[in-house]
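Researcher: Please predict.
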Amino acid sequence: MRVVVLGDIGQPVYHVGDEAMTHAVVDELRARGVTDIVLLSRDPEQSTRIFGTESVKTLEFPWPPHRRERYLREIKAILAGDMSALPAEDQVHALIETMKGCDGVVIAGGGNMTSPYGWLLYERAAVGAIANALGKPLVISGQTLGPVLTGPDYDTVVELFRSATLTSVREQTSWELMRNADVPAGLTLDDASFFEVDHALPAALELDQVTYKPQPGRPFLVATFAPGTGAMDRDAFNQRIAEVLDRIADAGKLDVVMIAHMSHPGQADIDIETHQDIRRRMNTENVMVCGQLSAEESASLTMQAEIVVASRYHPIVFALSAGVPCLGIAVDYYGEVRIGGALANWGLGHTMRSLRHLAAPEFDAFVDQFLASNNDIRSYLKELSPAQGEFQREWWDAVVETLKGSRPEAPVLVSPEPAFLELASDEHPAVAQLTANNELHIGHQSVELYGLTHLLEDTRGSLGAMEAVRDGLRDELNQVTGALAAKESEGHQLRIERDYLQEKLQLLESSLLVRACRKLRLLPR
């Protein structure tokens, strides 16, 4: 069986989470006998080296909303038989040919089905449309939907999920979004939960292998922070995080290991730059800022940690499935949906903290209380892990059954009852909802403004092109008018010469000599 897998891989920026989810899909398929796998990638050569599979170029959609919407319509027109909708050399034709030779399609998990990353959403919608047109089973695994979805993007998500044979989302918020749209969907853990990291690291992957080597008897804390700090000033956020990490490290006598989940390999930017700034603000001496590690090594170190503190999503995923207590800090509502959703799947959603908590003086007391519960949380996660792992294995079984032609029902995870309620926030739910509504409103306005700005640019470009055509036509008209005027002038001169010659001819015809010649029949009459 030949299966096409779409993950957000092969990007110029290495992203641990996206790579890990694709690794997980490949590993789970192989474990169930599916070995003929074709990855869709921005950089097929790199992905083939990393994953050891065949890889081909994926579709690259334009970023502005109206352009990606138009391109998806054009692709659907091609699939409906209108071959004039796109040029013969368009990228979609090669992908259609690739997918014709497959038996099924899997869209790996992720948080890219949202309007701010709409070009990735539409890439997935196009792959789904091709699979549907070709009659191939389509599986969509472990997605976050939204929370920002403009009208056209919402419709695109709903259509994509309705067209799939088997689907799952990875948090309650996304599941309710599909349920409200009357679209059946499963609810599972993130694809990279229980990610196996014991296989060899890809030697051909050129990353910044400045790493931490765990030592027996030396517990360590893993920290991962993105540059984004939401509504909080970046300096204030990084300073507050430095204080929190100092507090945790000092209390537990822990090394601090900062693991980047996104950067351009070799450039020490994005997460690495953020970590360097946080380290400069810390008082703890045993702090290591790692370079950009592979997904496998990042997950392995995270799973060995004593505690994890992160504003990124996948350190939380790795930690939970390995039984490691984790403090998830969301800097915006997108983060609250994802990090809070991942924690809620393990009965710990109420332990997530947002900027509203981080900026409050009471946060230090919460950190102390969290540390005091550390061993109990670890025991709780270890006890829950076998059932969670078995549930996720059942999901992957259903995926392969679907690819083989069956139609199993998508499983729905029953989240555990909230545990360690003493760690719940005392924030009134209405305040959190108000903040979420405000962020969603701002997010929608931002996307729509972005779209309108580019639509205006395109309109101006079209007007400019029309003006250039108009000026060209005007120049041609002037040239024709000039040529006609010249011809008219030339014709007028010819008429004068004709009249003159006719007058001379008449004079000659009436002359005495011509009349005499005709009488003598020397000239024809």
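Model: The CA atoms of residues 467 and 473 lie 10 Å apart.
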